[in-house]
Design brief:
The protein is α/β, with parallel strands linked by helices. The chain is 33% helix and 20% strand. It has helices at 10-20, 44-55, 70-79, 90-100, 102-111, 121-124, 168-178, and strands spanning 3-7, 29-33, 59-62, 82-85, 115-119, 157-159, 184-186, 191-196, 199-204. Helix 3 (70-79) runs parallel beside helix 5 (102-111).
Length: 207
């Protein structure tokens, strides 16, 4: 049974996460993967996400998959209660997930019922294929990525930052280009996609 919480900006919807877990998250451990942010100039959301997790009562255990030994990747992904993947460059993230084999471990953990929390790029890589975000992220940041096929843990395509600056125009371009080709699911920074077994929904935070 899949348990997934897919967001554009976790810090903006952390209260929804607490509601989603019925506060059972307090005291749980979370593998925190900031890899996607490494090739980005703007990365404030990494610290914001970490702080929001800690405010939810979670114990954050960082895992930088691009540099961590394989034993550490295996151990942290398997032992901690949740997996959290931050925003950043989706193509670089997918390249490193595939290169290290972390993609397969994450898929196995999600399939076994472990909670997965995605933020922006971390949400997009759950889709079948990430080519649709080439206008949003620089795919040349991942020169060793030979295929855009992704983790395929959901059968739709999250489009984060819908209506939000500075992504508003590029998101509209993605929707215009792909809306009649694939099943897009646009979410704003104050929305989250909720998957709990067979339950699917888009929740909106109170503002």
């Amino acid at each position: 049974m899949k348990n997934m919480f897919l967001t554009s900006s976790f810090a903006d919807v952390a209260d929804l996460f607490v509601k989603f877990t019925s506060e059972k998250c307090v005291g749980k451990t979370v593998t925190f993967i900031p890899t996607a942010s490494l090739v980005e100039d703007v990365n404030f959301y990494v610290a914001a996400g970490r702080e929001a997790l800690e405010k939810c009562g979670l114990i954050v255990d960082e895992l930088e998959i691009s540099t961590a030994p394989s034993e550490e990747v295996n151990s942290k992904l398997q032992k901690n209660d949740y997996i959290y993947v931050t925003g950043g460059n989706t193509f670089f993230l997918l390249q490193e997930l595939k290169r290290t084999g972390a993609d397969q471990i994450i898929k196995e953990q999600i399939s076994s019922g472990k909670m997965y929390i995605g933020e922006s790029a971390g949400s997009i890589v759950m889709s079948p294929n990430i080519e649709y975000v080439k206008d949003m992220d620089d795919f040349t940041a991942a020169p060793n990525l030979v295929s855009f096929s992704s983790l395929n843990m959901v059968d739709f395509y999250p489009v984060p930052h819908h209506t939000n600056v500075p992504f508003k125009q590029v998101v509209e371009k993605i929707i215009t280009s792909y809306d009649d080709k694939i099943d897009l699911c646009p979410i704003s920074n104050t929305q989250a996609i909720i998957i709990n077994g067979g339950e699917f929904g888009v929740w909106t935070a109170e503002t």
